[in-house]
Design brief:
There is one protein chain. The protein is α/β, with parallel strands linked by helices. The protein has 12 helices and 10 strands. The longest helix has 24 residues.
């Protein structure tokens, strides 16, 4: 074997080792993928989430339409949106760090912008927000294309854009499918490094709820006033990485 071939083989081995290590690392990272809305290009959606399915510990929440129309979904562990209850969904939400919605709808963005949880899929997204966990939504199929921008009434376009702006203000990541994997990786890292600030009002709220212990993320910063009030109200503040 000549030197060039040896170098090529070594490079390949290094790349394969890196990818294997990356997969093992990401398998420890739990995320949830919500497929509750149809897409005009389902094949593009499935292609975009394949890498996520192969490299993360994924909790799949899907509608029946996605199961019956895709072997990619039906061959993996999943829960049906139509058959799961809020208690079971709460367990999934607590176990995962990022919510990914690869196929959205106008119904989703409008209700999410208005914090209307009268639909289970929207309720799931709002619960992630309330826990300070990242939500990543693919813009394909919802963001008006050039022809819709040319022909649709300005009022309709502005209404749609106002909903999109609002969910972005609420820290929802609104990205095209081709940036889904990269964005999920960044959001997961940001969430892991997030430092929550514990204030006196949080201690007071815990006291009003009858709590004797307030469990907060391990990287949280606790203000002196929160510590003093906790001591006064006999509430133990415990840091946990769970």
């Amino acid at each position: 074997m000549d030197i060039q071939s040896q170098i090529k083989k070594l490079v390949q081995q290094v790349v394969e080792a890196y990818l294997k290590e990356k997969v093992l690392e990401n398998e420890k990272k739990p995320i949830a993928i919500l497929l509750g809305y149809q897409s005009p290009n389902p094949s593009h959606v499935l292609e975009a989430i394949t890498q996520l399915l192969n490299t993360y510990e994924v909790k799949l929440i899907v509608s029946k339409e996605w199961v019956t129309s895709s072997s990619t979904i039906s061959e993996r562990p999943f829960v049906l949106l139509e058959e799961i209850n809020q208690q079971e969904l709460t367990a999934i939400i607590e176990e995962s760090s990022v919510l990914v919605v690869p196929a959205a709808s106008y119904q989703l963005i409008s209700k999410l912008a208005l914090t209307m949880d009268d639909e289970l899929a929207v309720w799931v997204a709002i619960q992630y927000q309330l826990l300070g966990k990242p939500v990543v939504i693919a813009s394909n199929g919802v963001e008006p294309n050039v022809y819709q921008q040319i022909h649709a009434p300005h009022t309709v376009q502005e209404r749609i854009q106002s909903y999109i702006r609002q969910i972005q203000v609420d820290q929802v990541k609104w990205v095209p499918l081709n940036k889904l994997t990269q964005t999920v990786e960044h959001q997961f890292t940001a969430y892991e490094e997030k430092q929550s600030l514990i204030l006196a009002k949080h201690v007071e709220k815990a006291f009003q709820a009858g709590l004797k212990e307030l469990v907060v993320p391990v990287k949280s910063k606790i203000t002196p006033s929160a510590k003093d009030l906790a001591k006064e109200l006999k509430i133990v503040i415990t840091k946990s990485d769970a």
